[in-house]
Write a structure and sequence with these properties.
Helices cover 15% and strands 32% of the residues. The chain is α+β, with helices and mostly antiparallel strands. The strands form 11 sheets. It has an 8-stranded parallel sheet with strand order 26-25-24-23-30-29-28-27. The protein is globular and about 90 Å long. The N and C termini lie far apart (58 Å).
Length: 878
């Protein structure tokens, strides 16, 4: 066994642990098993992500047995999604079926006489977990934690083996329940989120998802009165004494500001009988609190410790909390921190899948998603249609993104008691997992588009949906807890219907459905791949401009209509259609489309905060290609835009129109200003070295930002860049980052019309994810760029990526090279060093042999699929 410890940022990290302040947001700190570590508490968390043996498919022999020989299995690291897939991986081409994982480890003797838990953040589908041949639990559902106590089953004198069987096959006995081939997203599979090993003393703060206690388990932070002068922080902690003797001691809280200054401390005596648990409730008054909001996402650190009678700390951890109040006041709309929130809630839905890896995204990739969405001007995200990775929630807390958390579901309900029980468990556990996050604005406990629009109309009726709202209230019996849905009888926040004076309304999905010709064809103006080029990207942006204006105009007319979330932030894979959803404002690699900058133009230019995407912006949506239009569209949140054409001479001025004064940012359109004959003549003449368009954004008559687009000439080289939002690559064997190869001319201008294929090679402490079997490496150039994913090894060091065109000649673009580093992870890891040599740097993707193993679904529009189309049509007509 090797435990990987950090040396990097040790001083900064130690201060953060001791004093509770936030690490710099561009290099975030990730939670582990629902909290942040606190040193010298007797509690340790280890990553179990590295070096699992993996097999795809059923086996004759039983891999849960200790004696099973797994030496011929491949070795992988978590998060793991079974396979690498083509960038466009829709139409249910992914594997569905059984997979097996086995991990060998030798326990640390320091763990004896302690409690040892395995905490899986999620395992897709139905799963079973064994240790040393003993079955510990079965779990149904792919989006919430699975935690098991392995304390009594560890062998202290040698090798231990954890076995996990996971099955992402269609199964109507748990949610979402619908067959993937009739589903608007993809199940993917595997242990696709982190796995942690949690070790602590027998007297300990519990895990809420493991305890299964209504409104209990773990630490519960809620609020009573919240104002600028005083905030009442409610604290409830569940403590279990698993020892055979009584425990007498104290529960202690220390609240720290972001700068490390202690704000408040609190202590209370506890007495716990042997092998019992208690809940301890208290209240902490905070004077002149820093209140959390999207504009100021201020986070305190709350250190929670348990001390014995001698004053020794025997358990504890940190929680990051944001103090805020949330109220929905009918016609008066949404109130935050006791005041009307006079900004529309404008954002998007988010599916979690990423190019190549599917759902198996790293913590940094999830955090980068939040950064990109915040930079786009979003202030709210609706998860679609399941709880997202915990690291995404952490990022939304830190960056100021409201989040709508839904229970897993899509157009399906089964009134079988097993399905109902598992659905109710999902609702309870999503609240238990995410209840302390300040970013949660309300919960969505109903099954998406089900009942009123989808399957089983009679059984998933208003009463059934009302029960789901009641479950949320049971799990969160304090102020500032709300649920959203359809039946007005049960929900405060409604997704539609005739306006009622005591309700508020939110458009959960806008911008897509009204444009779709039919649900078999799936043609729509807002659905544009980057590969479609400039004309399509402009149509998409203008489509979203129109629908977004409608949402904001509704907000301006009545605060009852709080805003909406566009569908959908990123291009995403789907089960029931052969094409991905191309309506994202970014593609599956998170490369921005023109529509991204359209949404960015709705940012408030007066708000300039580090790391939350703010300030003035301007973007010229024109690429100066022979096929670009004569009109130039500019997206900006400034008062006026000046457009200089070709540097010579012509300058055009536009100011915001009257309509835009009410927060609707217009598309600045300069008509008939580009004459390509003039471009040709200027270029041929040699008198003008740089033929360009330059847009300048002005506020109060002063230029505050600009964006320039130059004519790209012959492609001369490949330029490599990191798309990492300034975050370091962590050497934990799981983290990955995007490297982008851009085809550029001698001046660095991207050649958007280049159609090369790019081959990537790598040296050092990294590996490229995916290969030629799935057309990822070599990779075709799309709209000037060819992205690829680079994953770290477990050793920090230098990584060198080289990119070259596949067919080289004397005049083809020269190769590019990028050198960067990976850095040690702060979290120690448990793994066998000997296993690392077997980790394949290019795990098998969807190769020809794999395709033979996959159960092929018929491409015929069968009765089930017709039903899906009909449901979607009905839904859009509501």
């Amino acid at each position: 066994m090797r435990i990987l410890l950090t040396k990097r940022l040790l001083f900064i990290f130690t201060l953060g642990v001791l004093f509770g302040f936030q690490l710099y947001a561009s290099q975030p700190e990730y939670s582990t098993a629902g909290y942040y570590t606190l040193s010298n508490t007797g509690r340790n968390v280890y990553s179990m992500n590295v070096a699992w043996r993996f097999h795809k498919g059923e086996l004759v022999d039983d891999p849960s047995k200790v004696t099973y020989k797994d030496s011929l299995w491949s070795v992988v690291s978590l998060p793991h999604g079974i396979e690498y897939l083509p960038v466009d991986a829709s139409g249910s081409i992914n594997y569905q079926g059984v997979v097996w994982y086995r991990k060998h480890f030798i326990p640390n003797n320091d763990w004896k006489e302690k409690k040892v838990f395995l905490h899986f953040e999620a395992i897709m589908g139905k799963s079973e977990i064994w240790i040393n041949g003993i079955s510990l639990t079965k779990h149904f559902g792919g989006y919430l934690p699975v935690s098991v106590d392995i304390s009594n089953f560890i062998k202290w004198d040698g090798d231990n083996v954890i076995s996990v069987k996971a099955d992402n096959s269609n199964d109507p006995t748990y949610s979402p329940g619908k067959k993937e081939e009739n589903l608007d997203f993809t199940y993917f599979g595997g242990i696709y989120r982190d796995c942690w090993l949690v070790v602590h003393n027998k007297v300990h703060i519990t895990d809420p998802n493991f305890e299964n206690e209504t409104a209990g388990g773990g630490l519960f932070v809620a609020f009573d009165k919240v104002g600028s002068e005083l905030a009442e922080v409610l604290l409830k902690t569940h403590i279990r004494n698993s020892d055979n003797s009584r425990f007498d001691g104290t529960i202690n809280y220390e609240l720290f500001q972001a700068d490390g200054k202690k704000v408040k401390s609190l202590s209370k005596e506890v007495k716990i009988r042997r092998n019992e648990a208690i809940s301890v409730a208290d209240k902490m008054d905070v004077s002149s609190p820093h209140l959390w909001s999207p504009e100021s996402p201020y986070l305190y650190s709350l250190n929670v410790t348990i001390r014995n009678k001698k004053g020794e700390v025997i358990d504890g951890y940190r929680e990051k909390i944001g103090i805020r109040s949330i109220e929905f006041k009918g016609k008066d709309g949404f109130w935050l921190n006791g005041k009307p929130y006079n900004i529309p809630l404008l954002g998007g839905n988010r599916h979690q899948d990423f190019a190549v890896v599917g759902n198996a995204t790293s913590n940094s990739a999830n955090w980068r998603d939040a950064v990109k969405l915040r930079k786009a001007g979003f202030n709210i995200i609706r998860m679609a249609h399941y709880p997202s990775d915990p690291s995404f929630m952490d990022a939304c807390d830190a960056l100021g993104l409201f989040v709508i958390v839904p229970t897993p579901g899509w157009q399906f309900y089964n009134d079988d008691p097993a399905f109902v029980a598992r659905l109710e468990s999902d609702i309870r556990n999503m609240v238990r997992r995410d209840r302390n996050h300040p970013c949660v604005i309300f919960w969505e406990p109903i099954l998406n588009e089900t009942g009123l629009w989808g399957d089983s109309k009679t059984t998933y009726n208003e009463e059934a949906q009302g029960r789901s709202a009641d479950l949320v209230k049971q799990e969160y019996p304090y102020k500032y807890c709300y649920s959203a849905g359809g039946p007005e009888k049960y929900f405060t926040v409604l997704y539609g219907g005739v306006p009622k004076p005591d309700k508020v309304y939110f458009t959960r999905e806008y911008g897509d459905g009204g444009n779709v010709n039919n649900w078999a064809g799936q043609n729509a103006q807002n659905r544009a791949s980057l590969a479609y080029g400039e004309a399509a990207l402009l149509v998409q942006a203008e489509s979203y401009a129109k629908s977004t204006k409608g949402v904001i105009s509704s907000f301006n007319r009545s605060r009852q209509q709080m805003g909406g979330a566009m569908w959908c932030s990123f291009d995403a894979q789907r089960g029931y259609h052969p094409d991905p959803f191309f309506g994202g404002i970014m593609d599956a690699f998170r490369r921005p489309k023109y529509a991204y900058y359209l949404f960015m133009s709705h940012r408030n230019p007066e708000i300039q905060k580090q790391n939350i995407g703010s300030g003035p912006m301007v973007f010229t949506a024109h690429s100066l290609t022979p096929f670009s239009g004569k009109d130039v569209r500019v997206f900006s949140n400034c008062d006026e835009v000046h457009l200089t054409v070709f540097g010579g001479g012509e300058k055009y001025v536009q100011k915001k129109d009257v309509d835009s004064a009410e927060f609707v940012s217009p598309v600045f359109t300069f008509e008939n200003v580009v004459d390509y004959d003039q471009v040709i003549n200027l270029s041929r003449s040699g008198k003008v070295k740089d033929v360009y368009l330059k847009a300048e954004g002005l506020i109060d008559g002063k230029v505050v930002t600009e964006h320039k687009v130059s004519l790209a000439n012959a492609a001369t080289r490949i330029e490599l860049s990191l798309d990492n939002e300034g975050m370091d690559l962590l050497a934990n064997g799981s983290d990955f980052t995007t490297v982008v190869a851009s085809i550029v001319d001698e001046n660095g201008n991207v050649k958007r019309l280049n159609k090369s294929y790019v081959k990537f090679t790598i040296e050092g402490e990294g590996r490229i994810l995916g290969g030629e079997d799935i057309f990822v490496n070599p990779r075709p150039v799309v709209w000037g760029d060819a992205p690829v994913l680079v994953q770290s090894t477990t050793k920090s060091g230098t990584i060198k990526v080289k990119a070259e065109v596949c067919f080289k000649g004397n005049r083809t673009p020269l190769a590019g090279e990028l050198v960067f580093k990976s850095y040690e992870d702060e979290t120690p890891a448990v793994y066998s060093a000997s296993e690392l040599a077997f980790i394949d740097s290019n795990e098998p993707g969807q190769s020809a042999s794999d395709l033979d193993e996959v159960k092929r679904k018929s491409n015929v529009i069968d009765d089930d699929l017709k039903k899906v189309h009909e449901q979607q049509e009905r839904f859009m007509q509501e």
